[in-house]
Fold this sequence. Notes:
alpha+beta, G_Bms1/Tsr1_dom, Rossmann fold, U3 snoRNA binding, Pre-rRNA-processing protein TSR1 homolog, seven-stranded mixed β-sheet, 25% strand, BMS1_TSR1_C, single chain, 28% helix
Amino acid sequence: MAAHRPGPLKQQNKAHKGGRHRGRGSAQRDGKGRLALKTLSKKVRKELSRVDQRHRASQLRKQKKEAVLAEKRQLGGKDGPPHQVLVVPLHSRISLPEAMQLLQDRDTGTVHLNELGNTQSFMLLCPRLKHRWFFTSARPGDLHTVLDMAKVADTILFLLDPLEGWDSTGDYCLSCLFAQGLPTYTLAVQGISGLPLKKQIDARKKLSKAVEKRFPHDKFLLLDTQQEAGMLLRQLANQKQQHLAFRDRRAYLFAHAVDFVPSEENNLVGTLKISGYVRGQTVNVNRLLHIVGHGDFQMKQIDAPGDPFPLNPRRIKPQKDPDMAMEICATDTVDDMEEGLKVLMRADPDRQESLQAEVIPDPMEGEQTWPTEEELSGAKDFLKESSKVVKKVPKGTSSYQAEWILDGGSQSGGEGDEYEYDDMEHEDFMEEESQDESSEEEEEEYETMTVGESVHDDLYDEKVDEEAEAKMLEKYKQERLEEMFPDEVDTPRDVAARIRFQKYRGLKSFRTSPWDPKENLPQDYARIFQFQNFTNTRKSIFKEIEEKEVEGAEVSILLVHLVCCFHLFLFFLLGPQMSVLNMVVRRDPGNTEPVKAKEELIFHCGFRRFRASPLFSQHTAADKHKLQRFLTADMALVVTVYAPITFPPASVLLFKQKSNGMHSLIATGHLMSVDPDRMVIKRVVLSGHPCKIFTKMAVVRYMFFNREDVLWFKPVELRTKWGRRGHIKEPLGTHGHMKCSFDGKLKSQDTVLMNLYKRVFPKWTYDPYVPEPVPWVQSESSSIVPQEGME
Length: 791
């Protein structure tokens, strides 16, 4: 008997590999120098041993520690600018002059007084602590001054009341400062030693709980005696500094002394000499200078005088009055600086940046040649060919008779005749129904409430502005209608809908339908600047600032052309050109008044302050963003406005000026991008009512009021509030009634809608000059009222 032999299709199993597994070395030898794709694509990094890794980590820690110590020594030291401290009292019971007097400790160091406008400021030099401070103050009622001073201050010293901490004005000021971005801050309590000894412990506990809500993990110091003031100064000197991103990448300056030299031709034009300590980055004389509240200017030259407030001053012979040797005024400071001036940089006209903020549009840039007669005749022939419609008609029908025959005429004709007989009956029924609905809406809008009797106050009625109250009531009604019926508008009866909505178009899908961002741009877009890639431009500019060393000075006099003023806050610009800024904001919970789009608002964007009329739109990741007619409180919105180019990060605060002159905070947020191509799309919704419903067909009326409008909007898709979709089949009669088909049967209570869209643009209302607001003061009833005599 022959043995079985396996055929060629027998399964062949792998042989077992016995012995040890392959190591890394054998794998590399077998690879013969070949590397994996991931290894080739990654950056080759040298592998360090454990000892080298520990040594490298210790070196990095040492470098970071040395950088922190160097920054701490430079601020307020002999080689750096003085430590600028802004003192802000948060309660009306706090005595600001008493606190400033305690900080002027002549036993600690030398004090130099200086008057700046309505606020007192002084320079404190303390050689024992190797530190010097420049103290300024601002009342929380003067909100814009507080915000501007906080942008240039190194530390903010908040003064608290021992019983309440802060009042409503102080709380409002804190909300604005938190939204703008807080630098380093310190809390101090004034007046706690004046309380009875038993109540001091309870007051500290209550104050600690109140402070923990606003300032978690922060402790407060006392400021009642000279010894406590000395401890506070040590805390300010040794405190770790917090950085604000929008100012660290720029050079900025607070004016210590100002001298205006008018020209010979005109007294209103001249040279303004500003002296101060440059902070942040170094200064380039060819760049532009922005003075908050006044605009952008060019510099003429940068001078480096001697330090007017040296930490270790030269010894002067003692005089009879020792106080006279320690106090100097600002005018003497200017005279001393004029003696040993050293010119560091002069402006180069070829390299100096221009003040031109807008592009000068060329009216002939978009011109086209007139088409020839052959092109016009060809276009007419094409329109004739495209307008021809193929229809099925009986034999022997003329072309004139075929124009009156509709597709599926037998079915539609019967329905049209039936509809015409019952037209008047249905109109009467719909009128009665609409009257009932309007009466029910009126009843729902109002409700009865039992209130107690009040005494009529004539003084209160005199302060009420009836016209402003009527306008505010109308805004509240519009905001409520927008919430109930978003984007719905009534079709006008005196103007044809195809004319009223001629700039609108229909979209199959708002998210996916194409829309060219360069289509039908307004004339204002010819005046603005646009980046090819905003993100890359921003990175390259910041990288240039960090790497390139620009010649500058820590103490300098800047020469610009400006009208003299008191408080000057200077920032050095990266570019003054106008563009379209997009900011993400959220409604402030303390403000409930309706804010409509295109209303004039006051902006605090980074270091700039200006007025403009913005647009509100949804904050989405799509390429089209729907316009919001009101600033809603339940979600974040994007504010679009014409303004000078500002590079993020930058905080944004929105204020609205009231009729009494006060500025009310309405929204806070941050700068998102500079992008003119971001499309804000306005939607209008036309509504109609089905009066006859068949299986998937319905007769809709009240959306249009003539036959031509129905034919004009026939290609636009319809939708209903209950989710049905459809389109217009044909018009019925001459009163705007139309036969529509849907993807399902309609309900009798459903509403037929048509969405139309158009792109909108903000108004060019940019104004860098913001009027000074009426200061906020605290009344006896703990409410914020305007100061008397300022209204």
